[in-house]
Specification:
Helix content: over 70%
Radius of gyration: 16 Å
Structural class: mainly alpha
Mean pLDDT: 84
Number of strands: 0
Number of helices: 4
Strand content: under 5%
Shape: flat
Length: about 80
């Protein structure tokens, strides 16, 4: 892997961790963590679009489950908070 690729991976990895830490400062964990789980289906989509990776039914079902679970959790949290 060329040095530029390693540097890009390092900078994006550090910025992702800093972004999550900053999100925890501004919002409750019950809001931040479900959004963090959206990384999985988004990475599958990036792999399909940019790298030609196949999307099998299990990946699609998993992504749908994550989306539905996040939506349910956020709606429930909104409904329960004063």
């Amino acid at each position: 892997m060329p040095i530029k690729g390693i540097l890009v991976a390092a900078v994006t990895g550090i910025s992702a961790h800093l972004g999550i830490a900053k999100a925890f400062q501004h919002a409750d964990a019950t809001v931040v963590l479900p959004m963090d789980f959206l990384r999985l289906p988004l990475i599958a989509l990036v792999g399909a679009l940019f790298y030609g990776e196949g999307l099998d039914p299990w990946v699609i079902a998993g992504a749908a489950l994550i989306f539905v679970g996040n939506e349910y959790s956020l709606r429930r949290e909104r409904r329960l908070s004063p």
